Amino acid sequence: RFFLKGLYVLCRQSNCLLHTSLSVWRNRRVAAMAKGATSIQNSDPDPSQKLFEESQDDPDDLRKRRNMLIMIISCSFSMFGYGIYGAAYSQWIYVRFEMDVLGENFSEIDDGTVSKDPCFRGNHSDSPFKAMLMEAQSKSAHFSVLTTAVSLVPSFFVNLLLGAYSDQLGRRLIFITALSGNVARAGIVTAVAYWGMDVNYVLVGYTVFGLTGDYVALAMAIFIYTADNTTKGKDRSFLMVAAHAMNFLFVNMSQFTSGYFIESTGYVWPMFTGFAGMALSLILVILFLPETLHKTKAKTVSPWHAVKGIFSFYFEQPANPIYKRKDFILMGLVFMVYDASIAYGITIIFLMNEPFCWGAKHIGYVRSFFGLLQAVLSTLTMKFFQLFMSDELVVVVTLLSSVANRYILAFATTHWHIYLAYSLRAFEPSVVAIVRAILSRMVPRAKR
């Protein structure tokens, strides 16, 4: 019931076309325009203040809700594909290094069911292959960190330019760029897995992924688009969290099916399915997603001035009474430190090895259940916390749950430790979303 209520609130914000007649909408818009014209005549024309007010009050609600609905539908396929690809890849890379390290001895752990039980059969505590298995774990973890590095380093600079030029070239550009990189990466890695190519070719896919902004670019596109289509204050915070929760929802729905899929067909076809889902999302964005950037005749600025405009927030005081430089820097620090501590790929490798030896189905069950729990609770508790807490205090509470999760996971030795650690992550999806909303409210629309 709580889950359906949360979805209802999100859908009500996204699409009310069936509940609002065209005549009522016209009357409201005419009244709003008349009121706006009167207020402009009676006020002192301050350009910076006017720009800030325009970013908070846009009467074209129906168009915004329609935009949000199209964005959610388009990105849902990408999130589903991203989830099923990520689940298959994070397990495949460990098994691939097991094959490379063990060679002919790979049969010691694989009797055709390695996706169900990636550990040794029986008691092999004294087996010389035990050390080789630990070597495979170490190499796969190192390779996962390497793929993260080759994608995130170029994506840092790419996202600076994408974010800066989105105010001139449009929001659709970020969606198309990010989704193109997702499709290219999934296609290259799937080809490596299918034809048994050198594993280092995976780095090519992740480099392309980084050159198109990594997953960060897609998240940036979603939240810029959400900010364009929402209003001021806590309403924006809630919609930011709801959009983030929808991402979690679709990703974790795919986690549930991926376990069965992997154990039935192996790792290649789930990765190909993820590739197809992301490709479909790219096509939908190209064909149907409206642009929210109003066309202007502004001159195109140089890359240096574009990047300088981003970092000027740290050094210049804009015409916005709620902006505080120290808060902006602090929120940026929280954002970076939090994202650096997720370690998604290494966690999967950790669960596949002893003492847990989780197979694909077990991993899919647990990650899907707790992921859906996160998606629901982060949305509902966000609205509840906002009744008596500021957004900043909500961030503190959710970060405390994140600290407890990391601590228990680091020293886990039993299945119940893992379950408890995942339970404590229930509020995590709201952290980054609230930080984005706080930062977004500090600046006018033209610099958001």
TrEMBL record:
Q: Where in the cell is it found?
A: Membrane
Instruction: Mention one GO molecular function.
Output: transmembrane transporter activity
Keyword Lipid biosynthesis recorded: no
In the bilayer, the protein is annotated as: Multi-pass membrane protein
Q: Which UniProt keywords apply?
A: Membrane, Transmembrane, Transmembrane helix
Kindly list the residue ranges recorded as spanning the membrane: 69-89, 141-162, 174-197, 203-226, 238-262, 268-289, 328-352, 364-381, 393-412, 418-439
Whether Transferase counts among this entry's keywords is no
- Region Disordered: start-end pairs: 36-59
List the InterPro entries hit by this protein, alphabetically: MFS_trans_sf
UniProt GO cellular component terms? membrane
Name of the protein this chain belongs to? Major facilitator superfamily (MFS) profile domain-containing protein
